[in-house]
């Protein structure tokens, strides 16, 4: 099989396309023929050596969609459509940057769909992060105000759209003024140009503050985002687009405004149910949800795909087809 292997942290060119034996599943594992996978900033960080405890060489890739090629237990039929994500993929063990991957059965979400693979490849991690952030972490309700910090990321684009459809008033940020109309077309009522400080811009629209914040940029903007919230409001950090993991000299009493709540969503800890995934796929099939896909690459162009991701040129998900 073809696989993109990384032997040491580095630039996109550190990803090397090679021929590798097709792996063999053991008890509790399933061999998946990868049909598509989305690219994620966390993979970029792993490539750079910023993900703790990852050992090289490694095949990256924290998500995929594909078909069951072999299940020793017989639980899954050959050809069954499945999605998989997180749970150590591409970090603790080899992931989806390949034509085949062996995965623990616990990571699989069986589904049925007539959508093309390049569309399905955009769904797993993007949907799960948005669903988990908006509903499991933020408990979003119709009529609330929500700021999506990092609105033109793949997760941000879907969060803006789903929150708007659910009856929330959505504010979204972008660093690029040329992307303002994209966000408005996606459902954002207010678009803020992010220079690192948006508190005053938010308070100019909602003087008492807003109800919820979905922080996708990272630790370096989190304090400013929390300052946009009304007393009793909730902020959820679900992304690190800035590649910033930590807050130096964190002092909670100074960092978090009084009575404001801070939580996180991590799809590696709490996932969305398989039924929610299938229901979302049906919404996409029906045209009720539009997926923002910035580009589709073949596996032999994985270096170019990582370069594109690192330049932040798109407004949505990047998908790779093996």
From TrEMBL:
Known Gene3D superfamilies for this protein? Medium-chain alcohol dehydrogenases, catalytic domain, NAD(P)-binding Rossmann-like Domain
Q: Which domain of life is it from?
A: Bacteria
* Keywords of the record: NADP, Oxidoreductase
Could you list the residue ranges that cross the membrane? none
Please report the stretch or stretches of sequence annotated as the Enoyl reductase (ER) domain.
10-320
Q: A single Gene Ontology molecular function, please?
A: NADPH binding
Residue runs in coiled coils:
none
Write down the PANTHER family for this protein, in alphabetical order.
QUINONE OXIDOREDUCTASE PIG3 (PTHR48106:SF18), QUINONE OXIDOREDUCTASE PIG3-RELATED (PTHR48106)
State the protein's name: Zinc-binding dehydrogenase
């Amino acid at each position: 099989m073809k696989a993109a292997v990384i032997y040491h942290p580095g630039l996109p060119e550190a990803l090397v396309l090679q021929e590798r034996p097709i792996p063999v599943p053991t008890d509790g594992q399933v061999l998946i023929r990868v049909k598509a996978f989305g690219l994620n900033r966390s993979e970029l960080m792993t490539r750079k050596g910023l993900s703790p405890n990852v050992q090289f060489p490694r095949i990256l890739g924290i998500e995929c969609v594909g078909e069951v090629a072999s299940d020793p237990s017989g639980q899954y039929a050959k050809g069954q459509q499945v999605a998989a994500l997180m749970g150590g993929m591409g970090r603790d063990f080899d992931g989806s940057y390949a034509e085949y991957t062996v995965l623990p059965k616990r990571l699989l979400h069986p589904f049925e769909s007539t959508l093309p693979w390049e569309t399905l490849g955009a769904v797993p991690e993007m949907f799960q992060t948005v669903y988990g952030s908006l509903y499991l972490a933020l408990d979003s309700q119709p009529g609330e105000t929500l700021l999506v910090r990092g609105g033109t990321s793949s997760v941000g684009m879907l969060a803006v759209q789903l929150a708007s459809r659910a009856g929330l008033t959505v504010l979204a940020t972008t660093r690029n003024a040329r992307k303002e109309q994209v966000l408005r077309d996606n459902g954002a009522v207010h678009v803020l140009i992010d220079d690192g400080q948006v508190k005053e811009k938010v308070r100019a629209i909602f003087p008492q503050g807003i109800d919820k914040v979905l922080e996708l940029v990272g630790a370096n903007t989190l304090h400013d985002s929390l300052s946009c919230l009304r007393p009793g409001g909730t902020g959820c950090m679900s992304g690190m687009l800035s590649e910033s993991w930590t807050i130096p000299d964190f002092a909670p009493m100074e960092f978090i405004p009084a009575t404001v709540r801070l939580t996180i969503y991590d799809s590696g800890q709490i996932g969305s149910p398989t039924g929610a995934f299938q229901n979302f796929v049906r919404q996409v099939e029906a045209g009720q949800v539009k997926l923002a896909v910035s580009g589709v690459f073949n596996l032999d162009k994985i270096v170019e795909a990582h370069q594109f991701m690192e330049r932040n040129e798109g407004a949505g998900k990047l998908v790779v087809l093996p």
